[in-house]
Give the backbone structure.
Amino acid sequence: MQFFPFDTLMIVKQMAKNTYRPASISHSLILKTMKCITVLLGLTALLFTQASAFCGFYVAKADASLFNKASQVILVRQGNQTVVTMQSDYQGKLKDFAMVIPVPEILQKDQIRVAKSEIFDKLDQYSGPRLVEYHDQHPCQRYERLLEMSASRAQPSSAPMPDMVEDEEFGVKVEATYTVGEYDIVILSANESNGLEKWLTLNGYKIPAKAAPILAPYIQSEMKFFVVKVNLEAMQSAGVQQLRPLQMTFRSEKFGLPIRLGMANANGDQDMIVYAFSDQGRIEPTNYRNVEIPTNKEIPVFVKDRFGEFYTALFDKAWKKEGKNVVFTEYAWDLSSSNFVKCDPCPTTPPAYTDLREAGIFWLTSGYANRGGSDYQGNVFMTRMHVRYNSTTFPQDLGFQVTPNRKQMQGRYIMRHAVLDDNMDCEQATPYLKSVADRRQKELATLAQLTGWDVSRNQNYVQTVRAKYERKSNGWLEKLPEKNERNDGIPFLPILIGLGLVSGLLIFKTNLLRVVR
Amino acid sequence: MSSTTQAKSASPFLQFFKQDARHFQIVYLSIFLIYGIFWLGWAGQHFESVTQYLLIIGVCLIAQAIGIHFTTKDFRGLKSALITALGLCLLCKANSSWTLVLAAATAIGGKYLIRYKGKHVFNPANMGIIMAIIISGLVNFSQYDRFVPDAWVSPGQWGSDVIMLFVLGAMGSIVLLRVGRLDTSLAFIGTFASLVILRDMVYLGETDWRIPFHTLTNGSLLLFTFFMITDPVTTPNAKWARIAWAVAIAVISFGLTIDAFSLDVRVHAAPIYTLFALAPITALLDRYFKGKKFSWYE
């Protein structure tokens, strides 16, 4: 038995392995690249300073698969019409698969369809937190090497399934039954929660003990229940290997996601990624606090191979710091046909007309836009939200609203490769090496601050450059050790002072006691 | 109003500070704004949010200064403009800076243009938010073919921490005791809380008290309760009229959050809409229920 959102076991995916990916560079990326090169060539004076903010090359991403128990949802909203698409990463036996979703009305068959699984991967890759890299120009020569790399993705695996018995009892009314794709769908209305619970149990759904009290308020507010099982025959005849996302659309003033049922039968925290689309601007939560994930930080280059690990640690730390009851925005971007820059940098080609239609954005029309460089016309704004919730920190269902907020943001982390070869015979080499050592020290501090990792083991990252620099510089003054180097030995002085204070206090106390006696 | 117990004459600054309840209000609202920017991450990655706050404050002060110049010439009134500006910063968000200029200008403009018997009718910050939403919505009509405003209220920006209830409540109460408007706040939040609890715990049959509590500890709701609905100039003068008025606002805002009536007006901002709609009634209530007209200077 599974309640929405999908709380299923996830295979812990292998952390990002970097593979070179030459293809899939969008034309806007190429243009961007050209722009960046021009800028870099033009600004040779700024060699040692930070490169301009929004160039840089995408190398790795932290996708949704890194988070255990992560469900993914696409939410599309215009006016009072909502399109919800749910991706199941269900790993158990297909005949045990089931989910119950409260919906505001009795859905007709043409309001439900199955969508392609790839759309989730597409949106995840496009909007996920990204690592970009810059290469310093050689202090003595002038050239620029460009590199684009990408992380391989693990594909979510599939699973197999059962049929159901119909029964009208206990104040439960079967409003409609449909077979859509590989799913058998029953839409129920109920008079009271115990009846619904019994009906579900009789029909072979295993209900968690805590479900009935949570079902009651939905029944009272006249919500209907969208109950889904897998139809094995339909699945075989359709030749599908894995469960496809279910998409439904309805009109309702209510705009939110029911998360409480999913928490009834799950222990611990669950992650949910919401890809939200409107034609105005960002979508934001109304009953929980909304925070942007820390972004545009320079981190050490050795994080490259552990980027997934880095991002999960960063998310974890931010989540704890903000009080565990916030909704994080990881990405917000204007995908309107009039906006030429569909991402910057692009981890993958930005979603095209077919992708956006697949995601349920019903107001777009196909056709090349005049200046936007997209194959569709219309306004679309995408927001990617990441929620980690449990029943303690998120007592209510999530409510959302569409806002006119069109500020763009992305989870972007920057790596800057230094030039550390042996051809350092020019005058500029010494200040360059010094600047590299200094910035690496900062990068380590940023890394520690973002992830909570202990970076004392990584001091080598700074020391190698510092040694090079010291060898280079002739001035004896510069050979003095830096003050900001950490002494990782036992802090003797504070311990001594502490011991002194404690023993003094003890002596004072005992004397005092004696006097009192 | 005469609750000041002239403490053993403290420093002249403290004496000056205690003369006017608006000083407290300005300090508290500034604390909330700074808290929001630095701890709740309102500015986010976007520094322009902070410049937008400065823009609102600037426009409000200039508009008020112009108003004062042509009317009373009493420039102490700038304090009210600052309070209005801080209220707008805390509640109103907009995509374009022009919308914020519009909000600030209409907030103060409304004070001078829409008056009845020497009192302005609409709560200035409230007026600013509503006007920004309505006018920008009409301007955008041609683009979207439906009402799509450029301004919005972001109830989620505060979160729902219990501590908020105490801090906002306590600070609000200090101000309200001094201006004698605590009754309005308590009548509003009392009625609204009762209705929410009745709906959740009795009608919907929730078993978890955190459900209504989560709604009631929302920062925007509390800010409205203790710092907006209580503006002494735009509330009825007579005590019982005031309480009845506050109860009416609570009932109607709650009604707007019920699905059956939901008019896609972003129900999360329901009290703000209701206050605007009920503002003209204040004048009516003042006519039938006599009370002392409020003055900031006693």
Q: What stands out?
A: The two ends of chain A are 71 Å apart (CA to CA). Residues 1-56, 142-167 of chain A have pLDDT under 50 and may be disordered. DSSP finds eleven helices and 24 strands in chain A.
